[in-house]
From TrEMBL, chain A:
It holds the Pfam family RCF1-5-like_lid. It is found in: Nucleus. It comes from the Eukaryota. This is Replication factor C subunit 5. The lineage of its organism: Eukaryota, Fungi, Dikarya, Ascomycota, Pezizomycotina. InterPro entries: AAA+_ATPase (IPR003593), DNA_pol3_clamp-load_cplx_C (IPR008921), DNA_Rep/Repair_Clamp_Loader (IPR050238), P-loop_NTPase (IPR027417). Residues 34-186 form the AAA+ ATPase domain. Belongs to the activator 1 small subunits family. The keyword Nucleus applies. GO terms for molecular function: DNA binding; DNA clamp loader activity. Keywords: DNA replication, Nucleus. Its main location: nucleus. GO terms for biological process: DNA repair; DNA strand elongation involved in DNA replication. The keyword Nucleus applies.
Automatic annotation (TrEMBL), chain B:
This is AAA+ ATPase domain-containing protein. The lineage of its organism: Eukaryota, Fungi, Dikarya, Ascomycota, Pezizomycotina. GO terms for cellular component: Ctf18 RFC-like complex; DNA replication factor C complex; Elg1 RFC-like complex; Rad17 RFC-like complex. GO terms for molecular function: ATP binding; ATP hydrolysis activity; chromatin binding; DNA binding; DNA clamp loader activity. GO terms for biological process: DNA strand elongation involved in mitotic DNA replication; leading strand elongation; mitotic DNA replication checkpoint signaling; sister chromatid cohesion; UV-damage excision repair.
Length: 354, 397
């Protein structure tokens, strides 16, 4: 049985429930002969991918949904073999070049040129061009983005690019100026409640508006997360009520526990105890940035932390997050943050300047 | 051969031939061409705002001689366009294919390329044009290698160029375009005559954009051109691309609502051109570009939101944390990029007379630090929150 998120994903532009004017714009773009390169950006769980798939459907019809997965092998200039997965239909390709790390330029150059130089052979196809969807475009290296620049102009007869990114910060200006920017903002809480109510109706579950509201608030305006939480609640309790607790993910629980521990006891022994937990999180593939960010927000939310201390906590979290990006061993920086926090909190309690 | 030196006659002949050119160049699908390509200057005269450089280049065309060139300046000021126009005037459309090699960052451009492709091209024999053709264009006896985005060349590749430039000096000229002249090796720079391209002046850029918009029959509200130039920082290419995207969005909606046949719709817009002023208030659906469209397409952070955030920040960060955090959460959820927030805050604060100069010094330090962090790819939400808290701390101090 498919998850709610996949099962209820809207297939066409008409079926999208929020950002109506954006859907209208996409529909009219798809209907016109002149479809530009697009850059979708917005926070995760806002519905970027759903909108892209719906736009593709509007462009080509149902054929885009028949997808297959190929593994292609690319050879770098130093004769290293790269295996790379491509999701494709007859009309479009979907790639995640940041999978291959530093070698993304090779993939971009070879694959795009190959696609761009072959024309659409299917005469019944609605469009003369193929679409290449590039996921995590903000993770592309500068080289790969520079390689895109000219390709986008030169081969625009045969290929259109749709870039997906969380933010435009990682995209170089020349690419930004060659694409049509589409901002997909996160749904508001009432909009999430609306979606949840519809989902409940479809599954013929009992609708509880108060619970929906709580889920919407807890999800941080992330629709995917909201739907997953919604499903989890109903899976655990066959008869949920307004007060049913929403089970948070276990890694969040662990981080919350760390936060409470380091506020309670500020000793070297506690740093050692925290190290085990941090390692536990890292080995479960929780990204270090996520750990640090969540830890920071959990700390700030604790009642023991005074308002005047909060900017300081955020400041150091941001500082060590930067270090995580630059450094190679993440655990150092996580621990450094824990130690730093203990230091400034202790200093605050004693009334010392830190 | 007698009229080889007769530049006037040749210019006239070239002009008459270039008149027929746009129709054939535009090809079967003119609408699909980006405006930037469609309205790229075809002759030196059409290049705006760079009088000094154009003057010298014009004299070189007349003398049919060329040194190695190095054009530098901010993006979108017409460096590549100038060189291409120059080549077109020198060689004409036919010969240009054989005589000009264009290399830019999308091509593989390591050491090996400079060694092989450039050397091979430079070593080729010249194809002599027919007598007839020579009457129209000067066709001087050398080839041009255009290295676009030359500051992206590795320093190895640049050193490989040094000797190549001299050995082939008899038959080949190099034209380099770059944004930062400091990234070009000194030995290369000293072999070229340098031209600085200034950022376009508002008046001329606006006139050019107006020309294009009129040619495309696009309606726009007052102030749109100014806004487009403002968000693009004097980069004419960016401004034009933004306007084209905007025209697509509103124009396309127009086609659908008016009629199925695009030709009809186009004539409709033409007719209503005079009533543009009346249309202004009806907003987006009427099919004219509005200022908010430009903001949305450029991805800039809206000024109203900046003001709102700033008013929160001015209250300081000691007891105000929750309100700042709420603002930032909201901004993150709306999907605005941190670098846009940074630059709009920067331009607001630095030009705010109410902020003391001493504070501004400290603030610029913060801005530079956070810009660096963003380039390093840190988490945006955390960085925005930290930045806002620190700014608030300084503003309220």
């Amino acid at each position: 049985m498919a998850l709610l998120v996949d099962k209820l994903r809207p297939r066409s532009l008409d079926a999208l429930t929020y950002h109506k004017d954006l859907s209208d714009r996409l529909a009219s773009l798809a209907a016109s002969a002149d479809f530009p390169h697009l850059l979708f950006y917005g926070p995760s769980g806002a519905g970027k991918k759903t909108r892209i798939l719906a736009t593709l459907r509007a462009l080509y019809g149902g054929g885009v949904e028949k997808i297959k997965i190929d593994a292609r092998i690319f050879t770098t200039s130093s004769n290293r073999k790269l295996e790379f997965n491509i999701v494709s239909s007859v009309y479009h390709l979907e790639i995640t070049p940041s999978d291959v790390g530093n070698y993304d330029r090779v993939v971009i150059q070879e694959l795009l040129k190959e696609v761009a130089q072959t024309q659409q052979v299917d005469l019944s196809a609605k469009q003369r061009f193929k679409v290449v969807v590039i996921n995590e475009a903000d993770g592309l290296s500068r080289d790969a983005q520079a390689a895109l620049r000219r390709t986008m102009e030169k081969y625009s007869a045969n290929v259109r690019l749709i870039l997906v990114a969380n933010s435009t910060a990682g995209i170089i200006a020349p690419i930004r100026s060659r694409t049509l920017l589409v901002r997909v903002s996160a749904p508001t809480q009432p909009e999430i409640c609306d979606v949840l109510a519809k989902a409940a109706k479809k599954e013929s579950w009992k609708a509880i508006p108060a619970l929906n509201e709580r889920i919407a608030r807890e999800s941080g305006r992330n629709l995917r997360k909201a739907l997953l939480m919604f499903e989890a609640v109903y899976a655990q309790n066959p008869e949920p009520s307004e007060k049913t607790p929403i089970p948070p993910p276990d890694w969040e629980l662990l981080i919350e526990q760390i936060a409470r521990d380091i506020v309670r006891e500020r000793t070297p022994a506690m740093i050692l105890a925290t190290r085990a937990k941090l390692y536990d999180l890292l080995t479960h593939c929780i990204p270090a940035t996520m750990v640090l960010k969540t830890l920071c927000f959990k700390l700030v939310a604790l009642p023991e932390i005074d308002d005047s201390l909060k900017p300081e906590v955020v400041r150091w979290a941001s500082f060590y997050e930067h270090r995580i990006r630059l450094g190679s061993k993440v655990i150092f920086h996580l621990e450094a943050f824990v130690a730093k926090f203990m230091r400034i909190f202790e200093g605050y309690l004693v009334g010392m300047d830190f | 051969m007698a009229n080889f030196f007769d530049n006037k006659a040749r210019a006239a002949a070239a002009a008459s031939s270039s008149k027929s050119k746009p129709s054939e160049l535009a090809g079967p699908t003119p609408a699909l061409l980006p405006w930037v390509e469609k309205y790229r200057p075809r002759s030196l005269e059409e290049v705006k705002s760079q009088d000094h450089a154009i003057d010298i280049l014009r004299r070189m065309v007349n003398a049919s001689n060329l040194p190695n060139l190095l054009c530098y300046g901010p993006p979108g000021t017409g460096k590549t366009s100038t060189i291409l126009a120059l080549c077109r005037e020198l060689f004409g459309p036919e010969l240009m294919k054989h005589r000009v090699l264009e290399l830019n960052a999308s091509d593989e451009r390591g050491l090996s390329v400079v060694r092989e492709r450039v050397k091979q091209f430079a070593g080729q024999h010249l194809v002599n044009p027919s007598q007839q053709y020579r009457e129209k264009y000067p066709c001087p006896p050398f080839k041009v290698v255009l290295l676009d985005e030359a500051d992206q060349l590795t320093s190895d590749a640049q050193s490989a160029l040094r000797r190549t430039m001299e050995i082939h000096a008899r038959t080949t000229r190099f034209a380099l375009c770059c944004n930062y002249v400091s990234r070009i090796l000194d030995p290369i720079a000293s072999r070229c005559s340098k031209y600085r391209f200034r950022a376009l002046e508002g008046g001329q850029a606006a006139a050019r954009i107006e020309e294009i918009l009129t040619a495309e029959n696009v309606k726009y509200q007052q102030g749109v051109i100014e806004r487009a130039l403002q968000v693009s920082d004097g980069d004419l290419r960016k401004a034009i691309t933004i306007l084209q995207s905007a025209a697509r969005l509103v124009g396309v909606g127009n086609l659908e609502s008016n009629s199925r046949a695009p030709k009809n719709a186009r004539s409709v817009t033409e007719d209503s051109d005079e009533e543009m002023e009346d249309h202004d208030q009806t907003g987006l659906s009427s099919g004219s570009i509005s200022i908010s469209d430009i903001d949305e397409l450029a991805g800039t952070f809206p000024p109203e939101s900046t003001d709102k955030l700033l008013s929160v920040l001015k209250k300081g960060n000691t007891s105000n944390y929750n309100r700042i955090a709420a603002e930032i959460t909201d901004i993150t959820a709306s999907g605005y990029a941190a670098n846009e927030l940074l630059s709009s805050l920067y331009s607001k604060i630095v030009f705010d007379d109410l902020v003391e100069t001493k504070k501004k010094y400290k603030l610029t330090q913060i801005f530079s630090e956070f810009d660096k962090r963003l380039v390093d790819g840190v988490d945006e939400e955390l960085v925005m929150l930290d930045m806002s808290c620190q700014i608030a701390g300084i503003l309220a101090a």
